[in-house]
Design a protein that fits this description.
Elements lengths: L1 H4 L6 H14 L8 E4 L7 H14 L3 E4 L5 H10 L5 E4 L5 H5 L2 E16 L7 E2 L1 H9 L17 E5 L4 H9 L12 E3 L2 H10 L3 E6 H4 L4 E3 L1 E2 L6 H5 L6 E9 L4 H9 L3 H9 L3 E2 L16
Parallel strand pairs: 1-2, 5-10, 6-7, 6-8
Antiparallel strand pairs: 3-11, 4-8, 4-9, 4-11, 4-12
Helix pairs in contact: 3-12
């Protein structure tokens, strides 16, 4: 439109009126007719899809797509290539990634929880020792854990480098040292949840935000439930960061969406979906210096 008007001095008033009319029709919204794609980890996929819908409700002409998981590294690669302005990750940045000038901000923490299929009602809590024994294959039947039937435990595990598995490696003594993990390795949060949900007698682990609305039994860990208070006070030690990465300056719809993640509305959504908003813990600005440890 602006190119068509260029050089048409006699029609300048008409072009000005037309541009003003189109701008008013869009509600004067600077974010009109834009699509933002946010690729990356599957851990925050479900939560960000809910947040994206809320953001779109406030900006009707904007579309925010949260595609299927390509992992944290996939999101980072797409940002570095310029394919998308922001990506979603569930870990900190490596020294090499920092050297590329990436910025990162954490908008929420999700507890990592152990879950079982809904009919495993004989177990409510799990301990560090039990986790290690199950995942090493030492404990193979539910009856070894308490008043359960003598049925086989099927184990769902995540791949090396997965953010939830990294949390277990750091937090649970002996988990990282298991030489041969029992069970099946699954390569996305969504597949992991599907397997635990679909196969009775299966145990797995995942971010709480990805299972809070699923028909699964969420176990307490060392008799502590993963609510906001226990996370804030450090009583529940298993948590994964949900973060956004970008390169150079944030602008336009990408900037608006990242800022929205810290809004009161977003905070409410994050809490309702089983995660803990950073603004209620340790609000940090969107800045290059905000690098997760």
């Amino acid at each position: 439109m602006f190119q068509w008007c260029k050089g048409r001095s006699g029609q300048g008033w008409f072009c000005s009126f037309l541009c003003l009319f189109l701008w008013l029709c869009s509600g004067g919204n600077a974010l009109a007719e834009q699509t933002l794609v946010v690729p990356g980890t599957g851990d925050s996929q479900a939560l960000l899809r809910v947040l994206a819908k809320a953001f779109e409700a406030e900006n009707p002409a904007v579309r925010v797509a949260i595609p299927k998981s390509v992992g944290s590294i996939g999101g980072i690669k797409r940002v570095l290539s310029g394919e998308t302005p922001i990506g979603r990750v569930a870990r900190g940045l490596t020294a090499q990634e920092q050297a590329h000038g990436l910025n990162i901000t954490t908008f929420a923490y999700s507890p990592v929880v152990f879950v079982t299929s809904a009919n495993t009602s004989c177990l409510d809590n799990i301990t560090s020792r039990q986790v290690v024994d199950i995942y090493s294959g030492k404990t193979g039947f539910w009856s070894q854990l308490g008043a359960c039937e003598k049925k086989k435990i099927y184990v769902a595990n995540r791949e090396e480098g997965d953010s939830s598995r990294n949390v277990l490696n750091v937090t649970i003594p002996g988990f990282k040292e298991i030489q041969m993990i029992a069970g099946e390795v699954l390569y996305s949060t969504q597949e992991n949840v599907r397997i635990v949900k679909g196969y009775p007698g299966t145990i797995g682990y995942a971010p709480l935000s990805s299972v809070v609305n699923e028909p699964l039994r969420i176990l307490t860990f060392e008799k502590v439930y993963p609510d906001r208070e226990s996370i804030q006070q450090g009583k529940y030690p298993l948590a994964v960061p949900f973060s956004i990465v970008w390169k150079d300056d944030l602008e336009g719809v990408a900037k608006a969406f990242v800022e929205f993640l810290y809004s009161e509305k977003a905070v409410s959504i994050i809490e309702k979906n089983g995660a803990v908003p950073v603004s209620s813990m340790d609000r940090r600005p969107i800045a290059p210096s905000h690098l997760l440890l």
